[in-house]
Amino acid sequence: MGMHTGPKAIVREKIHYGSSDGRSMAPRGEYTIEARGSCIGLCECDGACDFTLSFDAFQQHVVEGRIAIRA
User: Fold this and answer.
1) CB 9 within 8 A of CB 42
2) Most buried of 8, 20, 43, 53 (most Cβ within 10 A)?
3) pTM confidence score
4) Residues of the chain under the 70 pLDDT cut
């Protein structure tokens, strides 16, 4: 397991995302950002990807202040 030094996403509010069993809510906190094709993966420190958002949804959450970016 390597140390991630790239930008982080700070989820400030609980946000909804689609999952295999319907809609889920992502908890507040800091996540590593991973590009995954046309999606953005948000992962906690253990390296497992917790959830993904489409680029458009990620961008909308940033613009609306629900997600902040920390370099």
Assistant:
1) yes
2) 53
3) 0.80
4) 1-5, 19-20, 45-49
